[in-house]
Amino acid sequence: MAAKAKTSLAPEKHSYEFLGPPGAAAISFGLPILLYTFTFGCNDVSGCPAPSLLNPSTLTVEKLKEEVGWPSEGILGFGSWKATGWVLAYYLFSLILYRVLPGTEAEGVKLVNGGRLKYKFNAFTSSMFTLAICAAGTFAQGASFPIWIFISDNYLQILTANIVIAFFLATFVYVRSFSVRPRNTEFRELAAGGQTGNILYDWFIGRELNPRITLPLIGEVDIKEWCEIRPGLLGWALLNCAFIAKQYNTHGFVTDSIVFITVVQGLYILDGQFMEPAILTTMDITTDGFGMMLSFGDLVWVPFFYSAQTRYLSVYPLSLGPLGLAGVSAVLAVGFYIFRASNSQKNAFRTNPNDPSVAHLKFMETKSGTRLLISGWWGMARHPNYLGDWLQAWPYNLPTGLAGYVVLKAGAGADGAFKMSDGREVVQGPAKGWGMLFTYLYVVYFAILLIHRNGRDDEKCARKYGEDWERYKKIVRWKILPGVY
């Protein structure tokens, strides 16, 4: 009976991912440090990167602190009760909208214990409601709308508040996961990969599959699904808007580059929220537990790392011009076409293999009864959609050009300088190109993420299809990019 009970909580054990406990520690505690490095290293006080970082021989701690805008209170200045209070208010507002706004309901995939969890979807409506309020405030007060000013003035403290919330949530759900019991009526279930027995790793990867909590007046909330699709994604859009306002307040105009990134990323965010039901079949929901990996990724990494380009452009207002806009738009269009066309082909085949659009495609039968495509998009690579996804990431970075700038004192009279509202001047100078370490890291990170995700998919399919998967890989040799990888 004990064995059956254990099986009902999680179907199978998994090996360590992310290099095990050392990797979990490096990601959990290293990424917050990286974001703080971004915050200070690329700033509106001295430059991007800070000038002393380009001259290590003259580097001193005191000089570096002055250049990066280190808080006068030291580490204590990283946070504030005011910023934390408003961040918590933002989360509460999101929860209230989740409860009071209308939405559709659906059941998730069948769990190992036989149950199906119910979900309410209204993330798109919630975001549109919030953005409408911000749009009205901006129309009335322009770039001086208090929300935009507060975000730009308290960026460091808002970042810290979200990091603390992410750590708290990861710890809360980990401790609470030990109350999961076999055959419980709430259909609570442990994640297969989060039961290694190593506290640090299980806390990071997530021990409980779909942790839920019932809040007064709000009702039941699926913590993982809510974090995945709501506060972080909308926060990303709000940060971008705040940086547009900052650019206007700093320089007196708004560039096509920052608008392009904000619009493209905004459409990506709203499209994901509009298609919210599709998240129920993703690996994040069906396979991964909710731990520090997803908590930090959803609430901190996505909004603050993904908005690095608009933050950069708010200080150095590079313009693309018609040809530049056409170029980045073309890259985006190609990536979107590959992503959407490949996914649509797969979905059409799964829904109706006899559909005229896919009836001509070749496939391979597996012992499990599943058919695997071996022609069309899915005959060229096992994940052509990942290639399209990666190509779509480039237009987020390209508008920053050969990034890097130096902030000079008022009256410097530098050639080609952008003059800030306080009289200081911004030029690229010796920093040109070095700022790409900040603005182009996203596309490198995304490539690593997709390669890692491909590896996880491969392991999952190998367990599911066995020998058939090995046979399939001999037919479809390339993983993501035909002829290269």
UniProtKB/TrEMBL annotation:
- Whether Lipid biosynthesis counts among this entry's keywords is yes
One GO MF annotation is:
Delta14-sterol reductase activity
Alphabetical keyword list = Lipid biosynthesis, Lipid metabolism, Membrane, Oxidoreductase, Steroid biosynthesis, Steroid metabolism, Sterol biosynthesis, Sterol metabolism, Transmembrane, Transmembrane helix
Regions annotated as coiled coil: none
Subcellular location(s) of the protein: Membrane
What Gene Ontology terms for biological process does this UniProt record contain?
ergosterol biosynthetic process
Q: Which GO terms describe its cellular component?
A: endoplasmic reticulum membrane
* Protein name as annotated: Delta(14)-sterol reductase
The record lists the organism as: Elaphomyces granulatus
